[in-house]
Amino acid sequence: MPEGTVTRGTTNPNRLRRMDRWLGHAHGTALRGAPPAPLAVDLGYGAAPWTAVELLERLRRVRPDVRVAGVEIDPERVAAALPYERGGLSFVRGGFELPLPGGERPLLIRAANVLRQYPEDRVRDVWERLCGRLAPGGLLVEGTCDELGRRHVWVALGPEGPRTVTFAARLGGPGGLGAPSDLAERLPKALIHRNVPGEPVHRFLRDFDRAWATAAPYAPLGARQRWVAAVRALAAAGWPLADDVRRWRQGEVTVRWAALAPRD
Fold first, then answer.
1. Residues 22, 240: Cα–Cα separation, whole Å
2. Per its UniProt entry, which superkingdom is the organism in (predicted)?
């Protein structure tokens, strides 16, 4: 039997575009250096297969022969996705056990908006299970976003465990960011209940809001410039960032997991 429970299945085209673009950047070297036809998994793609289709298209800009397998626990969702199969794109019924043909180990597993409904004490077990299925040099990315993909927070994990947390947002225009702490509602399950005084993620968002307020003079130049100035202030304050201004300009910032990990 598949391991896990059926999610709400909410999905929209382009919902995961921010995560996909980050994956192409952060995991591009591993994808390009992998043996022929590396495999990526879109775990829990939902009621429609759009995110799996888009993942294939975006990763193929980095590695033209990459393959994507969409994995869903609901058999009706798998049946509905089968007409979208084509060379390099397949769909299979399953859960956290990842029942891939021949027991193949993927180089990438993306699990977006899957663990949101689970209790916090399940997260570590699921992470360990999925990381144990990765190919050498593989990456697991698990996180949460809003329905339109404007606000997104994800954790990147290797076989050894969590490495980084990335905060990504649409900065300007309708639905743009009001303050960095607006991203708190999209924290992944491992962190969302830890946004309370005394926890590192709460201190990070507090410091980010203060840096954002201090960077207000940059607002006339655009929200992007204000974001970059605020992130520079975070770095100057000692927060261990794992990216640089090229990603900051995309409305992203990546922080080392050890700096945000729950205290227990």
1. 18
2. Bacteria
**pTM score of the predicted model:** 0.96
Q: CA angle at residue 51 from 50 to 52, to 5 degrees?
A: 95
Name the CA dihedral angle for 133, 138, 143, 149, rounded to a multiple of 10 degrees.
-130
3-state secondary structure of 188: coil
Rounded Cα distance between 154 and 144, Å, is: 6
Residues of the chain with pLDDT under 70: none
Residue reference for tokens 């900051």 = 248
Tokens describing residue 47: 């009621």
**What does the pLDDT read at residue 174?**
76
Residue entry with tokens 């698990």: 142
Residue 98, number of CB atoms within 10 A of its CB = 23
Burial of 87 (0-12, 13-18, 19+ CB in 10 A): exposed
Which residues sit opposite 175 in a β-bridge?
A: none
Give the strands of the sheet with 67-72, arranged side by side. Answer: 89-93, 67-72, 39-43, 108-112, 139-145, 151-158, 161-169, 252-256
Bridge-based pairing of strands 67-72 and 89-93 is: parallel
